[in-house]
Amino acid sequence: MELDELRPALDAWLDEHADELAPDEAGLATLDEQIAHLSQVKRLAFDAGWMRWGWPERVGGLGGPALLRAYLGEALTARGFVEPGMYSMTEVLAPTMIDFASPELAAEMVPRLLRGDETWCQGFSEPSTGSNLAALGCRAVATHEGWLVNGQKVWTSFAQFAQRCVLLVRTGTPESAHRGITALFVDMDSPGITVRPLEAMHGVPEFSEVFFDDVLVPVDRMLGDEGRGWAVAMDLLPYERSTALWHRGALLHRRLDQVLAAAEPGAVTPSEVGEAFQHLYAFRARSLATQRRLHAGGELGPETSIDKILIATAEQAVFDLAADGLADTVALGDDPTAARWRSEFLYSRAATIYGGSSEIQRNIVARRLLDLGPDR
Amino acid sequence: MDAGERALFAKGVQDATAGSTGADLDAALAALGWADALELDEHAAVADLFEAQGRAGATSGALDVVLVRALGEQAGAVVLPPLGRTTAPGHLQDGTVTVQGLGTAATGGDGPVHVACATDDGVVLATVDGLERRVIGGLDPALGLVEISGTAPGVTTGPVPWDDVVAAGQRAIAHELVGAAAAMLDLAREHALERIQFGVPIASFQAVRHRLADSLVDVESARGALDAAWEAGSPLDAAVAKAIAGRSGRLVARHAQQVLAGIGFTLDHPLHRYVRRVRVLDGLLGDARTLTRELGEQLLHERGLPAILPL
């Protein structure tokens, strides 16, 4: 299957099944409703085959290039059928499983994620290690029964809904930095795990604190070898900055289009509109090139930090424009549509913070792309 | 061109632009067969030459060649719109052409020039002789721009796709802007690594690193937009890419000037040539501010976005 073949067939299917795929709520639904709806969309798309294209057959896929996944997520987002932040967790976590889990474990678990049977989360950040991921402290100690995990994670998206977690733990000495980290695939119903959702500024309890208190993880749940967790993280982050960002770009396009349709005359200046569109264009051009490079079999690395900087810039430009163009809606509206605009505007403030802050991305650009040597 | 031919061609134009400028560069490009390459692979020929020209701070008659080709003509020089504008520089009424525009150094001599003229029925092309020319000193004397104005009888050769002509010119100038911005970033980067203050290279300070990082993001974002604009081919895409390249050129100039500090403010250092060049290039065939405002006006009028850059 190639993209040119998939595109018209998928478009036709999406149009035909729009009633089943569209969310009931026009505006901001509860997170429970959103998760349930996402599962339904993934199930429908999986059963019709679309969700399986672009994934290897050994994990329940139908094969074909990853571009097919990029297009599916874009098409679903562009029609408002999915929220890309939630949908694209699959793009971040399934490739990691395929690359690092044992073939048996990947074959057992990945189809559940693709089919929408399960939600997974990613346990990376900790209270004392946000940007400095290599300093993480959540500990795992080897025992006869497996790894015994103690510690805390934070900013774990959708943890309260998740059945599994890709977890980074410290298995080396506290000073071992990136050399002493191991990646585990953890069942979230394991005894000793407590999830506490955070009340966040945008009104959606997307992020949680996750506490691990003597949580036992079987040895066959290691992703990669002991002490090789940094490689798992480094492998995962470029996925986070490629297909997942492409999907998010589709949301920004849809929202900017809606702002233009609904903006009060004179509420935004032509220059602001033109510049927001140009930021979106620059991101999409960059991300398109990234997709092409992936498609040609290229490895993704530090250059995807530029993609991340560009989408954060575009996201804030689009929602700044929304907050001005739909000022009454965002500031004063109390219906679900207003609540969604307000929530997304507030969420856009975090675009330069999550997934590696813009400062960290600039550090990567300076160190890895400009070769400026060590910083002070 | 295959990858090997392309690399060889790019090396050829880089050497030519590094070693010569003006009429000498035109001769070097003729020897390289650049005009033939333009017919063979417009994207490669324009991208490689104009980026190299921008990097070297060189000038040539290549923009006229690109515009003449887009106009469907064989040879000659083309009058550009006034600074910041994209509208046809001529106005035709009753067989008389009134012109207010700019020309490259290639239009500096006597003789007829191609003038796109606005009429009630769209843009037509006229060949006009006897216009006044003034060589412009201005901010960037080395660019050799010429002001072209006056009223003269014109021979009309028919309608032209002016939007496509503007787009072809915008892509070329955008590549030149990218080259100039990349050259400024290189200068600032080298300086930051060599300049020692407080016992360490200033490149180790985050305030400096982030300016350089932002500059690379700007350069790469303009490059990416340009690649996309070539693929999409439409006037809207070319204008977006030109605006992004113009804004990026200005931002990189600002960062490079700050990082290069005192030495970059002297005429001994090459930075000033690029600072001048990007400012004037930004103004040719629509500056970033004007193009951005016009784009916004169009989108507000349409109350929606066009589909862009499909996978």
Give an overview in words:
The complex is a heterodimer of chains A (376) and B (311). Chain A is built from 14 helices and 8 strands. By secondary structure, chain A is an alpha+beta fold. In chain A, the strands form 2 sheets. Chain A has a 4-stranded mixed β-sheet with strand order 1-4-5-8. Chain A has a 4-stranded antiparallel β-sheet with strand order 2-3-7-6, with no helix packed on it. Chain A has 3 domains: 116 residues, Butyryl-Coa Dehydrogenase, subunit A, domain 1; 108 residues, Butyryl-CoA Dehydrogenase, subunit A, domain 2, CATH 2.40.110.10; 129 residues, Up-down Bundle (Butyryl-CoA Dehydrogenase, subunit A, domain 3). Helix content of chain A is 49%, strand content 14%. In chain A, strand 2 and strand 3 form a beta hairpin. Chain A starts with a helix and ends in a 7-residue tail after the last helix. Chain B is globular and about 70 Å long. Chain B contains 10 helices and 8 strands. Chain B folds into 3 domains: 58 residues; 71 residues, no CATH class; 139 residues, Butyryl-CoA Dehydrogenase, subunit A, domain 3, CATH 1.20.140. In chain B, the strands form 2 sheets. In chain B, strands 1-2-6-4-3 form a 5-stranded mixed β-barrel. A two-stranded antiparallel sheet of chain B has the order 7-8. The model of chain B has no long low-confidence stretch (mean pLDDT 96). The longest helix of chain B has 33 residues. By secondary structure, chain B is α+β, with helices and mostly antiparallel strands. In chain B, 57% of the residues lie in helices and 15% in strands. Chains A and B meet through helix 4, helix 9, helix 10, helix 11 and helix 14 of A and helix 6, strand 8, helix 7, helix 8 and helix 10 of B.
